[in-house]
Amino acid sequence: MKIRKRLNSQEDTYKLAKIISEYIFPGMIIGLSGDLGSGKTTFTKYFAKEISVKDVLNSPTFTILKTYKGKLDLYHMDVYRLEGIGYDYELDDYIYGKGIAIIEWCEYIDIMLPKDILKISFKFIDETTRDVIIEGSDKYEKIVEEISDRYSD
Ligand SMILES: Nc1ncnc2c1ncn2[C@@H]1O[C@H](COP(=O)(O)OP(=O)(O)O)[C@@H](O)[C@H]1O
Ligand SMILES: [Mg+2]
Questions:
Q1: Is the CB of residue 61 below 6 angstroms from any atom belonging to ligand 1?
Q2: 142 alpha carbon – ligand 1 mean position (Å)
Q3: Which of 32, 35, 82, 123 is most exposed, with the fewest beta carbons within 10 Å of its own?
Q4: CA dist 87 → 11, 31, 94 (Å)
């Protein structure tokens, strides 16, 4: 299932993260794409807060991966620097780990990801507005349905 939603403010982005946070499970993978400044890290911060991560979540751009403790472990990746790198086996432990993997620029490591992930693409509309395309099948289908029902733009 694939839906499009308009986020009119950061509050809407928070609401989206909150809904998704209600459906977490070990091994969950959320792939984020969209240009710089489109809202990937902002979404991740809200999501982290909702799963009770106490540490401050920063953009991991220079480290590729940062891990956090919450209701489930959170593995926050920004794989921008891995474009064209092929397969980085060191990330497998996290992508296929027991926590939740959130991957910014997920399209850069497509070949490392399973087919079944929750994908969110952010598009900058104006200063406060973003459009998101949310896509998920199998394990994630229900989450997309839930967002579709509960979030009306
Ligand atoms: N609706 C919105 N959703 C997410 N971020 C927004 C929104 N409106 C404005 N912003 C701002 O846009 C910027 C997004 O930056 P960031 O989340 O770091 O993007 P990315 O990680 O995609 O590069 C932040 O400064 C945030 O405050
Ligand atoms: Mg970012």
A1: no
A2: 26
A3: 35
A4: 36, 17, 14
**Cα–Cα dist 49/153, whole Å:** 23
Whether the Cβ atoms of residue 140 and residue 116 lie closer than 8 Å to each other: yes
pLDDT band at 29 (very low <50, low <70, confident <90, very high): very high
- Cα 152 to averaged position of ligand 2 atoms, centre (Å): 26
CA 38 to CA 45: how far, in whole Å? 14
Where do the structural domains in the chain lie, given as residue ranges? 2-150
- Separation between Cα atoms, residue 31 and residue 77, nearest integer Å: 10
**CATH code assigned to 2-150:** 3.40.50.300
Tens of pLDDT along 53-108? 999 998 876 789 999 999 999 999 999 999 888 888 899 999 999 999 999 999 99
